[in-house]
Amino acid sequence: MTPIRQLVGHPRRGTSRVGVGTAHGTFGELLQGALPGPGEADGEGRFLVTLPVARWSSARFELQAPGTGLTVSPSHKTKATALATALLTELGHPVAGSLVLTSTIPEGKGLASSSADLVATARAVTAVLERSVPARRLGAMLAAIEPTDGVMYPGVVAFDHRRGAHLRTLGHLPALQVVAVDQGGQVDTVAFNRRCAAYGASERRHYERLLGELARAVAAGDLAAVGAVSTESAALNQSRMPNRNFVALRDICRLVGGLGLVACHSGTMIGILLDPRHSGYRSQLSEAVHLAEGLSGAIHLYRTLAA
Protein backbone atom coordinates (compact mmCIF):
# COMPACT_ATOMS: atom_id res chain seq x y z
CA MET A 1 0.00 0.00 0.00
CA THR A 2 1.49 3.35 -1.02
CA PRO A 3 1.88 5.81 1.87
CA ILE A 4 0.33 9.23 1.55
CA ARG A 5 3.64 11.06 1.72
CA GLN A 6 4.82 9.21 -1.37
CA LEU A 7 1.60 9.12 -3.37
CA VAL A 8 -0.47 12.17 -2.67
CA GLY A 9 1.45 14.52 -0.43
CA HIS A 10 3.64 17.53 -0.77
CA PRO A 11 4.56 17.86 2.91
CA ARG A 12 7.51 20.06 3.75
CA ARG A 13 9.37 20.21 7.00
CA GLY A 14 10.03 23.70 8.25
CA THR A 15 11.88 22.94 11.49
CA SER A 16 12.08 19.89 13.72
CA ARG A 17 8.79 20.90 15.32
CA VAL A 18 6.88 22.41 12.38
CA GLY A 19 5.32 20.81 9.33
CA VAL A 20 3.53 22.50 6.45
CA GLY A 21 1.25 21.15 3.75
CA THR A 22 -0.83 22.45 0.86
CA ALA A 23 -3.71 21.16 -1.25
CA HIS A 24 -5.55 22.52 -4.28
CA GLY A 25 -9.29 22.89 -4.71
CA THR A 26 -11.46 21.69 -7.58
CA PHE A 27 -13.97 23.69 -9.58
CA GLY A 28 -16.97 21.53 -8.89
CA GLU A 29 -16.95 18.31 -10.86
CA LEU A 30 -16.70 17.37 -14.50
CA LEU A 31 -19.14 14.58 -13.69
CA GLN A 32 -21.00 13.48 -10.57
CA GLY A 33 -23.49 10.69 -10.11
CA ALA A 34 -23.64 7.02 -9.17
CA LEU A 35 -22.47 3.75 -10.72
CA PRO A 36 -23.99 0.26 -10.82
CA GLY A 37 -22.55 -2.19 -8.35
CA PRO A 38 -23.07 -4.46 -5.36
CA GLY A 39 -23.84 -1.58 -2.98
CA GLU A 40 -26.50 -0.12 -5.26
CA ALA A 41 -29.41 -1.18 -3.05
CA ASP A 42 -27.81 0.63 -0.10
CA GLY A 43 -27.27 3.83 -2.04
CA GLU A 44 -23.56 3.26 -2.54
CA GLY A 45 -21.58 3.78 -5.72
CA ARG A 46 -21.67 7.58 -5.63
CA PHE A 47 -18.75 9.18 -7.42
CA LEU A 48 -17.39 12.44 -8.78
CA VAL A 49 -14.69 13.46 -11.24
CA THR A 50 -12.40 16.27 -10.14
CA LEU A 51 -11.35 19.40 -12.05
CA PRO A 52 -8.28 20.71 -10.15
CA VAL A 53 -8.23 24.48 -9.88
CA ALA A 54 -5.46 26.92 -8.96
CA ARG A 55 -6.81 27.81 -5.54
CA TRP A 56 -5.11 26.50 -2.43
CA SER A 57 -5.38 25.67 1.25
CA SER A 58 -2.23 25.71 3.36
CA ALA A 59 -1.68 24.25 6.81
CA ARG A 60 1.10 24.85 9.33
CA PHE A 61 1.26 22.43 12.24
CA GLU A 62 3.58 22.99 15.19
CA LEU A 63 4.08 20.36 17.86
CA GLN A 64 3.51 21.43 21.45
CA ALA A 65 4.29 19.83 24.79
CA PRO A 66 2.04 16.90 25.80
CA GLY A 67 -0.95 18.06 27.83
CA THR A 68 -1.21 21.48 26.21
CA GLY A 69 -4.01 20.42 23.89
CA LEU A 70 -4.72 21.22 20.26
CA THR A 71 -5.49 24.72 19.01
CA VAL A 72 -6.78 25.43 15.52
CA SER A 73 -7.02 28.76 13.73
CA PRO A 74 -9.45 29.86 12.39
CA SER A 75 -11.49 28.34 15.19
CA HIS A 76 -14.44 27.43 12.94
CA LYS A 77 -12.30 24.86 11.09
CA THR A 78 -13.77 22.05 13.18
CA LYS A 79 -13.30 19.42 10.45
CA ALA A 80 -9.56 20.06 10.38
CA THR A 81 -9.57 19.84 14.18
CA ALA A 82 -11.24 16.43 13.98
CA LEU A 83 -8.75 15.13 11.41
CA ALA A 84 -5.66 16.42 13.22
CA THR A 85 -6.92 14.78 16.42
CA ALA A 86 -7.60 11.48 14.63
CA LEU A 87 -4.20 11.49 12.87
CA LEU A 88 -2.20 12.27 15.99
CA THR A 89 -4.05 9.54 17.87
CA GLU A 90 -3.61 6.99 15.07
CA LEU A 91 0.11 7.74 14.84
CA GLY A 92 0.54 7.34 18.58
CA HIS A 93 1.36 10.95 19.33
CA PRO A 94 -0.17 13.13 22.06
CA VAL A 95 -2.93 15.40 20.80
CA ALA A 96 -0.97 18.58 21.34
CA GLY A 97 -0.07 21.25 18.86
CA SER A 98 -1.02 24.39 16.98
CA LEU A 99 -2.66 24.17 13.55
CA VAL A 100 -3.02 27.30 11.41
CA LEU A 101 -4.95 27.17 8.13
CA THR A 102 -5.01 29.73 5.35
CA SER A 103 -6.96 29.40 2.12
CA THR A 104 -7.82 31.16 -1.11
CA ILE A 105 -10.77 28.79 -1.71
CA PRO A 106 -14.20 30.24 -0.93
CA GLU A 107 -16.25 28.21 1.53
CA GLY A 108 -19.62 26.62 0.84
CA LYS A 109 -19.44 27.16 -2.93
CA GLY A 110 -18.55 23.66 -4.14
CA LEU A 111 -14.82 24.23 -4.72
CA ALA A 112 -13.66 21.61 -2.18
CA SER A 113 -12.57 24.11 0.46
CA SER A 114 -13.06 21.63 3.32
CA SER A 115 -11.40 18.76 1.47
CA ALA A 116 -8.39 20.96 0.68
CA ASP A 117 -8.18 22.02 4.33
CA LEU A 118 -8.21 18.38 5.41
CA VAL A 119 -5.60 17.20 2.93
CA ALA A 120 -3.33 20.14 3.76
CA THR A 121 -3.75 19.31 7.45
CA ALA A 122 -2.85 15.67 6.87
CA ARG A 123 0.26 16.67 4.94
CA ALA A 124 1.37 19.09 7.66
CA VAL A 125 0.86 16.59 10.49
CA THR A 126 2.57 13.69 8.70
CA ALA A 127 5.43 16.00 7.69
CA VAL A 128 6.31 17.06 11.22
CA LEU A 129 5.95 13.54 12.59
CA GLU A 130 7.85 12.05 9.64
CA ARG A 131 5.25 9.31 9.49
CA SER A 132 3.19 7.82 6.67
CA VAL A 133 -0.52 7.10 6.35
CA PRO A 134 -1.68 4.89 3.45
CA ALA A 135 -3.76 6.87 0.97
CA ARG A 136 -6.67 4.44 1.30
CA ARG A 137 -6.68 4.89 5.07
CA LEU A 138 -6.52 8.68 4.80
CA GLY A 139 -9.43 8.69 2.36
CA ALA A 140 -11.52 6.71 4.84
CA MET A 141 -10.59 9.10 7.64
CA LEU A 142 -11.64 12.10 5.56
CA ALA A 143 -14.91 10.46 4.51
CA ALA A 144 -15.71 9.74 8.17
CA ILE A 145 -15.69 13.51 8.73
CA GLU A 146 -17.54 14.54 5.57
CA PRO A 147 -18.03 13.44 1.95
CA THR A 148 -14.71 14.40 0.41
CA ASP A 149 -13.27 15.32 -2.98
CA GLY A 150 -10.24 13.54 -4.42
CA VAL A 151 -7.93 16.56 -4.13
CA MET A 152 -5.20 14.41 -2.56
CA TYR A 153 -4.57 12.99 -6.04
CA PRO A 154 -3.02 14.89 -8.95
CA GLY A 155 -4.83 15.24 -12.25
CA VAL A 156 -8.40 14.35 -13.11
CA VAL A 157 -9.64 11.43 -11.00
CA ALA A 158 -12.87 9.53 -10.40
CA PHE A 159 -13.44 9.35 -6.65
CA ASP A 160 -16.05 7.83 -4.36
CA HIS A 161 -16.66 10.83 -2.13
CA ARG A 162 -18.73 8.95 0.44
CA ARG A 163 -16.16 6.22 1.06
CA GLY A 164 -13.10 8.34 0.33
CA ALA A 165 -11.94 5.81 -2.27
CA HIS A 166 -9.94 6.46 -5.44
CA LEU A 167 -11.67 4.73 -8.36
CA ARG A 168 -9.47 5.60 -11.32
CA THR A 169 -7.17 8.28 -12.69
CA LEU A 170 -8.44 9.65 -15.98
CA GLY A 171 -5.34 11.71 -16.78
CA HIS A 172 -4.57 15.39 -17.17
CA LEU A 173 -6.04 18.34 -19.03
CA PRO A 174 -4.41 21.57 -20.18
CA ALA A 175 -5.04 24.69 -18.13
CA LEU A 176 -8.56 25.92 -18.87
CA GLN A 177 -10.38 29.13 -18.06
CA VAL A 178 -13.61 29.01 -16.08
CA VAL A 179 -15.99 31.96 -16.27
CA ALA A 180 -18.15 31.26 -13.23
CA VAL A 181 -21.33 32.80 -11.88
CA ASP A 182 -22.15 32.34 -8.20
CA GLN A 183 -25.88 32.39 -7.49
CA GLY A 184 -25.15 33.20 -3.85
CA GLY A 185 -25.49 31.54 -0.48
CA GLN A 186 -23.60 28.52 0.80
CA VAL A 187 -24.20 24.78 0.68
CA ASP A 188 -23.40 22.44 3.57
CA THR A 189 -21.80 19.36 1.98
CA VAL A 190 -22.81 17.01 4.78
CA ALA A 191 -26.45 18.16 4.77
CA PHE A 192 -26.65 18.01 0.98
CA ASN A 193 -25.41 14.42 0.84
CA ARG A 194 -27.88 13.37 3.52
CA ARG A 195 -30.85 14.62 1.54
CA CYS A 196 -29.60 13.93 -2.00
CA ALA A 197 -32.13 11.81 -3.90
CA ALA A 198 -31.30 8.21 -4.69
CA TYR A 199 -30.15 7.15 -8.14
CA GLY A 200 -32.18 4.55 -10.03
CA ALA A 201 -30.72 1.65 -11.98
CA SER A 202 -31.15 3.34 -15.37
CA GLU A 203 -29.53 6.54 -14.08
CA ARG A 204 -26.57 4.55 -12.80
CA ARG A 205 -26.09 2.90 -16.18
CA HIS A 206 -26.25 6.31 -17.81
CA TYR A 207 -23.57 7.71 -15.49
CA GLU A 208 -21.43 4.64 -16.14
CA ARG A 209 -21.60 5.41 -19.86
CA LEU A 210 -20.78 9.08 -19.25
CA LEU A 211 -17.77 8.14 -17.13
CA GLY A 212 -16.49 5.94 -19.95
CA GLU A 213 -16.97 8.77 -22.45
CA LEU A 214 -15.19 11.22 -20.18
CA ALA A 215 -12.27 8.86 -19.60
CA ARG A 216 -11.79 8.43 -23.34
CA ALA A 217 -12.09 12.18 -23.93
CA VAL A 218 -9.47 13.05 -21.30
CA ALA A 219 -7.10 10.37 -22.59
CA ALA A 220 -7.47 11.69 -26.14
CA GLY A 221 -7.25 15.35 -25.16
CA ASP A 222 -10.65 15.89 -26.79
CA LEU A 223 -11.75 19.04 -24.95
CA ALA A 224 -15.03 19.35 -26.88
CA ALA A 225 -16.00 15.85 -25.71
CA VAL A 226 -14.94 16.68 -22.15
CA GLY A 227 -17.16 19.76 -22.28
CA ALA A 228 -20.08 17.78 -23.68
CA VAL A 229 -20.01 15.29 -20.80
CA SER A 230 -19.53 18.04 -18.23
CA THR A 231 -22.49 19.98 -19.65
CA GLU A 232 -24.70 16.91 -19.55
CA SER A 233 -23.74 16.25 -15.95
CA ALA A 234 -24.61 19.85 -15.06
CA ALA A 235 -27.98 19.44 -16.78
CA LEU A 236 -28.71 16.19 -14.96
CA ASN A 237 -27.84 17.85 -11.65
CA GLN A 238 -30.59 20.43 -12.08
CA SER A 239 -33.05 17.93 -10.59
CA ARG A 240 -30.93 17.64 -7.43
CA MET A 241 -29.34 21.05 -6.99
CA PRO A 242 -31.05 23.57 -9.27
CA ASN A 243 -29.03 26.58 -10.37
CA ARG A 244 -31.08 29.46 -11.76
CA ASN A 245 -28.28 30.49 -14.14
CA PHE A 246 -27.89 27.13 -15.87
CA VAL A 247 -30.00 27.79 -18.97
CA ALA A 248 -28.63 31.29 -19.54
CA LEU A 249 -25.02 30.15 -19.11
CA ARG A 250 -25.58 27.27 -21.51
CA ASP A 251 -26.85 29.75 -24.09
CA ILE A 252 -23.89 32.07 -23.50
CA CYS A 253 -21.48 29.15 -23.81
CA ARG A 254 -22.96 28.21 -27.18
CA LEU A 255 -22.89 31.81 -28.36
CA VAL A 256 -19.20 32.38 -27.56
CA GLY A 257 -18.12 28.91 -28.71
CA GLY A 258 -17.09 27.63 -25.30
CA LEU A 259 -16.23 24.01 -24.57
CA GLY A 260 -19.20 23.50 -22.26
CA LEU A 261 -20.38 24.07 -18.72
CA VAL A 262 -18.95 22.75 -15.46
CA ALA A 263 -21.10 22.65 -12.33
CA CYS A 264 -20.42 22.68 -8.64
CA HIS A 265 -22.87 19.83 -8.09
CA SER A 266 -23.20 20.47 -4.36
CA GLY A 267 -22.43 24.17 -4.52
CA THR A 268 -23.57 27.53 -5.81
CA MET A 269 -21.53 28.03 -8.99
CA ILE A 270 -21.69 27.06 -12.63
CA GLY A 271 -18.98 28.05 -15.07
CA ILE A 272 -18.23 28.21 -18.78
CA LEU A 273 -15.12 26.31 -19.88
CA LEU A 274 -12.82 28.09 -22.32
CA ASP A 275 -9.54 26.97 -23.88
CA PRO A 276 -6.91 29.75 -23.58
CA ARG A 277 -5.05 28.22 -26.55
CA HIS A 278 -7.99 28.94 -28.88
CA SER A 279 -7.20 31.63 -31.45
CA GLY A 280 -10.29 33.62 -30.47
CA TYR A 281 -9.88 33.13 -26.72
CA ARG A 282 -9.62 36.79 -25.73
CA SER A 283 -12.80 37.63 -27.58
CA GLN A 284 -14.55 34.58 -26.13
CA LEU A 285 -13.53 35.56 -22.61
CA SER A 286 -14.54 39.21 -23.01
CA GLU A 287 -17.93 38.35 -24.49
CA ALA A 288 -18.66 35.62 -21.94
CA VAL A 289 -17.94 37.99 -19.06
CA HIS A 290 -19.97 40.79 -20.65
CA LEU A 291 -23.01 38.56 -21.19
CA ALA A 292 -22.73 36.96 -17.75
CA GLU A 293 -22.89 40.41 -16.16
CA GLY A 294 -26.61 40.40 -16.97
CA LEU A 295 -27.22 37.34 -14.80
CA SER A 296 -28.09 37.12 -11.14
CA GLY A 297 -24.88 36.55 -9.21
CA ALA A 298 -21.25 37.49 -8.90
CA ILE A 299 -18.79 36.62 -11.69
CA HIS A 300 -15.51 34.89 -10.84
CA LEU A 301 -12.63 33.76 -13.03
CA TYR A 302 -10.75 30.55 -12.25
CA ARG A 303 -7.89 28.79 -13.98
CA THR A 304 -7.66 25.02 -13.81
CA LEU A 305 -4.38 23.21 -13.13
CA ALA A 306 -2.51 21.67 -16.04
CA ALA A 307 -0.47 18.47 -15.84
TrEMBL record:
Annotated region described as Disordered, given as residue ranges: 1-21
Per its UniProt entry, which superkingdom is the organism in? Answer: Bacteria
* InterPro entries attached to this UniProt entry: GHMP_kinase_N_dom, PduX, Ribosomal_Su5_D2-typ_SF, Ribsml_uS5_D2-typ_fold_subgr
Query: Span of the secretion signal?
Result: none
What Gene Ontology molecular-function terms does this entry list? ATP binding; kinase activity
Identify the Gene3D superfamilies for this entry: 3.30.230.10
Residues in domain GHMP kinase N-terminal? 83-146
Keywords attached to this entry: ATP-binding, Kinase, Nucleotide-binding, Transferase
The answer to whether UniProt assigns keyword Kinase to this entry is yes
Q: Name one Pfam family in it.
A: GHMP_kinases_N
PANTHER family assigned to the protein according to its UniProt record, in alphabetical order: 4-DIPHOSPHOCYTIDYL-2-C-METHYL-D-ERYTHRITOL KINASE, CHLOROPLASTIC (PTHR43527), L-THREONINE KINASE (PTHR43527:SF1)
Q: What is this protein called?
A: Threonine kinase
Which species does this protein come from? Answer: Micromonospora sediminicola
Q: What is the lineage of its organism?
A: Bacteria, Bacillati, Actinomycetota, Actinomycetes, Micromonosporales
